[in-house]
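INPUT
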Amino acid sequence: MGDCEELLTPLQKDVLQEIMNISFGQAAADLSEVVNLYVTLTVPYIDLLRFDGILPLITKDIAGANDMGMVKQFFSGKFTGSSVLIFPHGEGKKLLRLFDATAGASDYDVDVLEKEILIEISNIIMGACISKIAELVKDVVSYSPPRYYAQDQIHNALSEAFADKESFAIFFKTVFHFKEFDASGFLFLISDESTLEWLKTAIEDYLRQYT
Amino acid sequence: MAKILIVDDSIVARMSVKACIPKDQGHELAEAGDGAKGLALFRSLKPDVTFLDLTMPDKNGLEVLEELRLDFPTAVIVILSADIQKQTQEKARLLGAFSIIKKPPVKEVVQAELAKALALLGVSYG
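OUTPUT
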């Protein structure tokens, strides 16, 4: 599908996939600790593709792309990019049961609560995931505050973010499934081509400890 | 010496486990890149100790563990996984995992678990 084979060797790609696997595992563990959500993880998918290929790939995965909730956060360090967590239609509302009714949740508008819960869950997942990647490749990253986008804002936000058609994106995807709530979220991490050379060096360093 | 099987869909994960296993004890190593191959190799090789990943495509590690322990109730299976949620660890223990190690593997931890497993089996090495 992408150009991964040209820019990364199979072993480099495998290292990245394993780093993602460990990072998503950390994110799931943090989530289950903080909000008592048990998460089933899929094997992470990784590819290198042109920026204009990202949006079709994201929307292909998710039914009802015009009616989903999305939280986006930038991270910057030597490893720089965006993390995007997308919840298909209705998934956010299923997670409202996480709010205890006795804690005053009934005083708030359902849409506001849905937005808050998606931001909170995304913040935990993205923070744990990116921090673990940074730790494994010996980097330190800083984050912008997560931002929530609803429905009609999503397409514009994604189009703007991935409008750079000339360069490549390093694209990671995994699916989080919250079993008790029968809800899923899609996590995408997207970094640009400028990170690639540094990332290759970090991969070699990671590999060196095992050879 | 012992027969050791490593089941993980990631090449680098298998490399990292192999790098943690002492080279001077004459262990025989075998590896499989997915759950189905892991099961088949286990049946033919009958390893003393198996290092098993959980998050794998098609047949995941918990399914492999369950199947193995049904057919080989005394199989010594060490889970090596990035999924470090308590619930996952409980499931693995209930299914009969010998121990659970979180990824990335640390040499001292892998060697300690291996030594415990071999002591339990009464396998001599060195």
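end of record. Residues 3-121 of chain B form a domain with the Rossmann fold fold (CATH 3.40.50.2300).
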